[in-house]
Structures are given as structure tokens and as C-alpha cells.
Amino acid sequence: MAEDLHGPLDGHNFQAAWKGTYLDSFMISDVGRKRHNNEDSCTIYAPEDEGLQQSRGVFFGVADGMGGASAGEYASCKALEYACKSYYDKNVHALVPAALRKAVESANNFIFSESEAKPEYSGMGTTFSALAIVGNWCYIAQVGDSRIYLLRKDKELQQITNDHSLVAEQVRNGLINKEDAHNHSLKNLITRAVGIREDIEVDLFALNLQMDDKIILCSDGLSNMVSDDLLMECLRGDNLEEAGHKMVQCALDAGGPDNITLIAIRISAPPPSTNYQQGAKLCNLGNRSLFSRLFGFLRG
Prior knowledge:
single chain, 300 residues, alpha+beta, Phosphatase 2c, domain 1, eight-stranded mixed beta sheet, six-stranded antiparallel beta sheet, globular
């Protein structure tokens, strides 16, 4: 039987776990301390068919809706639903990156059409951060400012995706630094979202996985409130459920002004070796190890 986990379904809190032969995962979504409704959504889908799982892998996604109450909640939920369905049902012979792009385009078409046709959904949209793990390769599709991080053994936490926001673009162009960006009044102003325009531009990344790698997909309700160092601290150990609750609690302790959603994934056994599929940008994992960072600090 296929494993299809999706939530929250009631606009409030949600959590679920899934375990495969070489993957452990846990997802949690919390409404936060200031909001009355949860506009985030998260999903894990593992197909029942062994051939489909080998060719398309397991799908994980986080979306942060906008448009107010039911519109934002509807946008994030439907974006993940339509993308996941398209990814597994259409273009079965396409390479994984191309299939992911088509999946996001399918979600965008639906959200945009609903927004145009129904006044109650006018102007809605959503961020979209999703990945498919196929053997020892992880393929990522990104729109907006939800994030995907990688924590590799003895390395620092690394943000894999790029935020599609006005402030993040200023950082990349050298106009402001990261500290200024964190405190910027316009840091939540995003430049790309699913459903806002008829056409959508999707970032695609490919990441070669290793045993013990940990991946986080999260909405900005987590990343805006919890530092990278604190996220790393929460991720120590192999209990993803415990780590997930710790990260959410950190965001709540920092004020919890937004909905908080994350999926934590761990490569718990050696993944089967598969061929890299072209069409996505290979991730540069050249960050320094924790040891080398400490050595540099001691040297002054």
C-alpha cells in the first residue's frame, strides 16, 4: 500500500512519521503563538509500486500559503497535492528533474486558475520546497523562501536552496549583509510563488547523498526564528521526532509569530547506488568541517 501522509487537515497542528529501508523521516506543523490558522502544508508520499519507487523515489514537500486564512491554507495544500500527483502520474519516462519541474508547473496552473476563477481565492499563492530521493540522489524543486538544509557528518549545516525574496537577492548582490537581512523590515517579501502568475520559474538542484546525511525542509516560521547553530544542536542524535519537536519549541520560545512546519529526513542505511539524472544544478558542498572552523577560530 502506498504511504500518503499529508497535513494539517484542520488548519491547526499535525505530525507524522515514515520509515523506509534506508530513510527515516518525521514531519510536524504547528500553528505558532500568534496565528489562529495554519496556512502551511507538508507531505510525504512513498508509492506502493516497487518499480515506481525505484524510478521516482519518495516525495517530500513543504509549502507556506499566502492569501489569508482559507486561501493560503488551500493554496499550500493543493500545490503539494497536484505536484505530487503530477510527479508520479505524468511523464513517467522523463528524467526526475524534468518531472519535478512539470509537477510544479501543474500545481502553479491549478492554483493560478482557482485564484482567477473564485473571488474567495483571489491573489492566493504559496511557497514550494520539495524533493524526491531516488537511491543515493536527492532532487530538489524550489519556489519562494521556504528552505531545504543539509547536515552532513562533521560538517556545518548548509542551506541548499536559495530564498526567492527581495532581501535575499540584495544579499546575493552584495548590497546588504546577512545580519542586516535578518532584521530587514521587508525580509518576508518574496519574489516568486506558486500560483501568483501564469508562468513559474523553478530552481532545480541535485544532491549526492551519503549515509547519516540529515535533510530539513521547512517554512520560514522555523528558519526566521531559529539560528543555524541551534538547528544543528537540535539535530544531534538519530531520533528525528525528538529533533523535530525541539526545533519547533525553539521557534515557539523565540515568539512563534508564524506557522512552523518542517520535515526532517535521515539517511539511516547505505542508499542504493543510482545514476545521476541531468537537468538539475549539482550542489556545491564545499563548506568547512566543524573541526576546521574550530581550528581557524583558535588560530585567531
